[in-house]
């Protein structure tokens, strides 16, 4: 099925559409820029609209990055490494990425990892403790968690059992 063709829009109509697009959910500058180019606008018009959206607080890269980081942690159980990579793909600046990662609550982060590892451990049918430990580490690394935090949480879980 083909995507619907977008008709060329004038700058005023494109601004209105972009405002609605940004009001619906937080967006990165690049997502909005890409969307505006589908309206066949000139690069100068796209940048003027981006500036207007920033001035009127429809677009805020820091707000987007914080919402993205917290959402990916809560909903997908991603670790900071994977969140950072996702924000890089969205072309968020390194400074804003650092701010967003620092805003993640440390206790929530550890608890999410802990819950994720406990659920995964229950799903794995591995009798060899060494292999189980390795599989859990690999799983958490794939989710984007840092190795030192993974090993700390696994030690805590082992000591509790």
Keywords for this structure?
161 residues, mainly alpha, Arc Repressor Mutant, subunit A, 9 helices, 73% helix
Question: Overview of this structure, please?
Answer:
This protein is mainly alpha-helical and 161 residues long. The protein has three domains: 11-59, Winged helix-like DNA-binding domain superfamily/Winged helix DNA-binding domain (Arc Repressor Mutant, subunit A, Orthogonal Bundle), CATH 1.10.10; 62-102, no CATH class; 106-160, Arc Repressor Mutant, subunit A (Orthogonal Bundle). Helices cover 73% and strands 0% of the residues. It is built from nine helices and no strands. Helix 4 (61-76) crosses helix 6 (94-102), helix 7 crosses helix 8 and helix 7 crosses helix 9. The longest helix is centred in the last third of the chain and has 18 residues, at 106-123. The radius of gyration is 21 Å and the shape is elongated. The termini are far apart.
Measured as a percent range, the helix fraction is over 70%
Describe the main β-sheet briefly: none
Total helical elements? 9
Tally the structural domains: 3
What do the pLDDT scores average to?
A: 91
- The CATH class of the largest domain is identified as Mainly Alpha
Briefly, what is this?
This protein has 161 residues and is an all-alpha fold.
SSE blueprint:
Layout: H1 11-24, H2 29-37, H3 43-55, H4 61-76, H5 80-89, H6 94-102, H7 106-123, H8 129-142, H9 147-160
Helix pairs in contact: 1-3, 2-3, 4-5, 4-6, 5-6, 7-8, 7-9, 8-9
């Amino acid at each position: 099925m083909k995507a619907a063709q977008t008709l060329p829009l004038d700058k005023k109509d494109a601004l209105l559409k972009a405002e609605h697009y940004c009001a619906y959910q937080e967006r990165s500058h690049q997502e909005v820029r890409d969307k505006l180019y589908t309206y066949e606008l000139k690069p100068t018009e796209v940048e003027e609209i981006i500036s207007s959206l920033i001035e009127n607080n429809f677009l805020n890269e820091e707000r987007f990055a914080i919402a993205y980081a917290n959402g990916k942690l809560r909903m997908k159980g991603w670790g900071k490494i994977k969140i950072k990579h996702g924000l890089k793909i969205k072309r968020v600046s390194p400074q804003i990425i650092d701010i967003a990662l620092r805003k993640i609550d440390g206790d929530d982060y550890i608890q999410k990892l802990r819950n994720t590892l406990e659920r995964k451990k229950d799903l794995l049918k591995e009798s060899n403790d060494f292999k189980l430990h390795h599989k859990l580490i690999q799983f958490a690394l794939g989710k984007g968690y840092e190795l030192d935090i993974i090993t700390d949480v696994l030690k805590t879980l082992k000591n509790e059992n």
